[in-house]
Amino acid sequence: MSDTLIPATIVTGFLGSGKTTLLKRVLTEAHGQKIAVIENEFGEENIDNDILVADTEEQIIQLSNGCVCCTIREDLRSTLSTLAAKKRKSELDFDRVVIETTGLADPGPVAQTFFMDDEVAESFLLDSILTLVDAKHANEQLDTRQEARRQVGFADQIFISKSELVEPAALDALMHRLKHMNPRAPQQRVHFGEVDLASVFDLRGFNLNAKLEIDPDFLKPEETHAHGHKHHDHTHCDHDHGHCDHDHGHEHGHNHEHGEHCQHPHHHHHDDDVKSFVFRSDKAFNPAKLEDFLGAIVQVYGPKMLRYKGVLYMKGTDKKVIFQGVHQLMGSDLGPKWLPSEKKQSKMVFIGIDLPKEILLSGLEGCLA
Questions:
Q1: Which of 78, 93, 144, 350 has its CA 20 to 30 A from that of 356?
Q2: In 3D, which of 16, 44, 20 has the Cα closest to residue 134?
Q3: Is the dihedral of CA 189, 195, 198, 204 positive or negative?
Q4: What H or E segment, with its residue span, contains residue 249?
Q5: How many Å apart are CA 159 and CA 157, to the nearest integer?
Q6: Looking at residues 339-368, what average pLDDT do you find?
Q7: 18-34 residue pLDDT tens
Q8: What is the per-residue pLDDT across 151-173, written as a single tens digit (0 to 9) for each?
């Protein structure tokens, strides 16, 4: 079945971060791939005028290099259905879809469309969410716009544009900041949004694969959290909101890890509401307890949970259990067997807005067999 599914990529990002440059290249360059680009017509900077003859009647236009450009007039669902139908009838030829969300859109509902709608799920496979970040204006945008922070939290891959316009120390601090928000997403610097297409497609961000990519540097200072998070001095925490002072401590720890950054005070200023944390344990989970706990957590905090993913060591199976979710939607699958040489260990990463870290960590601890 999956051979016939059309891969889809969601491109999101701050205003001026180079999304339009990226989409123009996709639509005009002779890259030999037939791509359908779906544009949110409310975009601040439309690519149509440059490339397309304004033909208001036609929503879907075939371009000379074999690509297709399509403006969303209705909702995404119906646009995707139309494209899939035209492809089946051989009216349109394309191999993949790229969806641009407007500058301040939340990519969550777009991603959910691929899982919740049966018709869409039968034709398309969501590959990944790409977020473009403008290095020059990123800190201000992250400080003032939660939508910008959410886009970082959702990303499977982050592209940083305009990095040549900022000092190396500032860029370094920005990359640290992004990593705290989302340790799963690799970061790549790009020039004016000019990204090599090989690093845009087939990233398999939503594959339930047995590898959980978390930046290894990020894991180092977390060491204490997973095994002994009980003996931090959390007495002064405001548990309801999860705004704990130790998040700053965690950042300090992160920077001392890298030694040379300590003299930059700006590393410590950002206490973003989009944060990530990792849970690890060498003990097996009790499947029923874990399912109940995660089900309850998703009910309560689902809207604030951006992305979460894990490779789990479960009692009663010799296979890895792989799970992931977006907002309230959670799925799991049996992965490959644990190899005799492998250390059986659960590793989970949660990325969300003001998630109650302590409640989650102690709750997960309580689900261990």
A1: 144
A2: 16
A3: positive
A4: helix 246-257
A5: 7
A6: 94
A7: 887 888 887 777 678 88
A8: 999 999 999 999 999 999 999 99
